[in-house]
Amino acid sequence: MNTLPRKYAFNWDVIGTDVQEARPALGLYTSFEVYRLLQFTLRDVLESRYGTKAADEIFREAGTLAGKAFFERYCADATDIPSLVKTIQQEFRTLGIGIVRFEKTDTKTMTFQLTVDEDLDCSGLPDTSDHICVYDEGFIKGIFDSFTGKDFTVQEVDCWCSGARTCRFKATLP
C-alpha cells in the first residue's frame, strides 16, 4: 500500500456537489466523446509509462473503486439480489452507462452473467478482437463486492470490440 501523501483520495465531494452553481447553463451531462477522450488519453499515458498489463490493472482497480462508490450512492438500499439487479438496471440507464440485462443469476453459487448494451466505454469502437472493458470489470466487481461483502472475480467474455455487439460479463466467487 502506498503511504505517500494524497491530494485526491476519492470521495463524492471531489467531483463537486453543487452542479447548479458550478454549471448553471451546461448542467450534469456532456458527450460520450469527452468521456472517451479522458478515458483513452489516460489509458495512453498509463500504457506508455507502465505497459498494457499494468494499465489494465490500474483501470480495473479504478473501476472497482468506482463500483464501490456507485453502490454506496445508488444501490445501498437494495435488500436482496432482485432489488440490486433492478437498481443497477435503472441507474445504468439513467446515468447513460449502458443498458444492463442479467442473463443468468444463481444466488446459490453467487454466479451472474450480465450484458451491457450501448456500453459507454466501447460501443461503436472498431473491431480489434480485444476485450477492452477492464474498467467495467472492476466497476461490476465493486458493486457485487459491496453488496455481498465478498471478493468477486468479474471477467468480460464478450465485447463490442471483439465483434459481439454487446459486452457480456461473468461475475463469480473464486
Automatic annotation (TrEMBL):
Residues 111-173 form the 4-vinyl reductase 4VR domain. It holds the Pfam family V4R. InterPro entries: NO_sig/Golgi_transp_ligand-bd, V4R. SUPFAM superfamilies: Ligand-binding domain in the NO signalling and Golgi transport (SSF111126). PANTHER family: DNA-DIRECTED RNA POLYMERASE SUBUNIT I, SLR0144 PROTEIN. This is 4-vinyl reductase. It comes from Desulfobulbus oligotrophicus.
